[in-house]
Amino acid sequence: MRSTYRNLLMKQAIAALCLTGTILTSLLAVSPSIKNEPVVQVTGGRIEGVLNRAGDVYSYKGIPFAAPPVGARRWKAPQPVVPWSGVRRADAFGPSPVQGAPSPFGPWSAEYLIPKTPISEDCLYLNVWTGKQATRKKPVLVWIYGGGFGSGGSGAPIYDGEATARNGIVFVSVNYRVGPFGFFAHPELTGESGNQASGNYGLMDQIAALKWVQQNIVRFGGDPANVTIAGQSAGSMSVNCLVASPLASGLFTKAIAQSGARFATPYPSLREAEDDGKKTARALGASTLADLRALPAEALLKQAQAMRGPIIDGYVLPASIAQLFADRRQNPVTLLTGWNEDEGLAFGPLKNAVDYTAQVNQRYGTQAEALLRYYPANTDAEAAQSQRNLSRDQTFGAQNYHWAVTQAQQRLPVFVYRFMRKVPATGDYANYGAFHTAEVPYAYDNLRFVDKQLRPLRQADDELAHAMAAYWANFIKTGNPNGKGLAHWPAFTAPSDSIMQLDTVIRARPLPDRAALSLLFSILQTP
């Protein structure tokens, strides 16, 4: 009897231990605060994160979200992740996508660029930062980098997610294929795809990453029902495409678009992109898909450097961005968008008044006279400033402004900013002011990564960064940037055109160049 009772107690103890183990395993998967370097179960296997020096944020870097797009998987939609055994150490960024070697240029010093290595076609990795506190249902931000769809990666220092995670947000940054690896179309690729489309592999990578977030982010304390997508430059244009794409439906509820959209001029059609693909194949001596997929990455990159950017493929993008929004077929989101004051400084040499006026007349024809009223050239100095403003507005301002107007007209919430801070700098860097990308380390409170030898920042910059990070965090959490201790940021409405001026003095004001932007957009729309 005692033996039987002892055996029963032993079985109960073993069962209790098994149950405890199951509970602990589950807690470890959801709650990173159980141990210093927590193990989390994600699609594909287990990963082990790293606790930061301050002891308040965990990071998980280099997490595969799809199979390596190499060999036979080059130019295919992202495939299911290849499972691994054991525990994968998630302490380093995965390789950046294949591109030219990163090197500082213009206003962009090293902290704005990806690491020089590793770079590989095997690049479909993402990174997660989450606070130590095991709070469930945290809002989630998914960051998409810029780089003209031909460069970039999630490993750039200014994209670090620690400060945002400290604000109670799960920060996710993702890699996607760029250049000819991300945006190459060809009739044979279209034929084998199963959806009669090819070319938008980079966008499909982003969608695959968002699906990974839906399936896995709860294990990091995130709320899959409260996801914001954000990006800058080509990342902002990606956000624009994802909001427009039916394939991204239900994957996010809010969007942050920093300097980038594509409304006035449509992306290339599938037929146009396929023709470019055929020309590239002929130039490389590749007569079959097998030949193309066997080409060294370096040869393809060299031959097809100009091949980049989304395509109206009938699948990821069923129509132009403008048409999808006009038909209200986009995914309805709450939007925060804007652009920087001096973004035109990095895009081409300046001309004197005579040459600038001649160029405007040649390019814009009968619209030139009206345009020169807003971008005048009575002196060389005035012409230089007008060139900067026109470059800024035709590349970014008019596009993001039109998105804001469309959003407001459709009674969808939208908040608009203008980043005005001329970043303190030395040498040639002092010429760039509020340059393209300058706002990123402010918005995500990452000024600690900025090279202080090149850019001797001041207390005013720290204060601006803390305020912007608070606005961004509030928007990510609630869809409204306003919060305690912050100057009020009014919603943008088409009648009022109120925007937030982000500078050493933060204030709301009417958009100063509304008429110029409206005229420029109408001109850009003209074929």
UniProtKB/TrEMBL annotation:
<dbReference type="InterPro" id="IPR050309">
    <property type="entry name" value="Type-B_Carboxylest/Lipase"/>
</dbReference>
<dbReference type="InterPro" id="IPR029058">
    <property type="entry name" value="AB_hydrolase_fold"/>
</dbReference>
<keyword id="KW-0378">Hydrolase</keyword>
<dbReference type="InterPro" id="IPR002018">
    <property type="entry name" value="CarbesteraseB"/>
</dbReference>
<dbReference type="GO" id="GO:0016787">
    <property type="term" value="F:hydrolase activity"/>
</dbReference>
<protein>
    <recommendedName>
        <fullName>Carboxylic ester hydrolase</fullName>
        <ecNumber>3.1.1.-</ecNumber>
    </recommendedName>
</protein>
<comment type="similarity">
    <text>Belongs to the type-B carboxylesterase/lipase family.</text>
</comment>
<dbReference type="InterPro" id="IPR019826">
    <property type="entry name" value="Carboxylesterase_B_AS"/>
</dbReference>
<dbReference type="Pfam" id="PF00135">
    <property type="entry name" value="COesterase"/>
</dbReference>
<feature type="domain" description="Carboxylesterase type B">
    <location>
        <begin position="37"/>
        <end position="504"/>
    </location>
</feature>
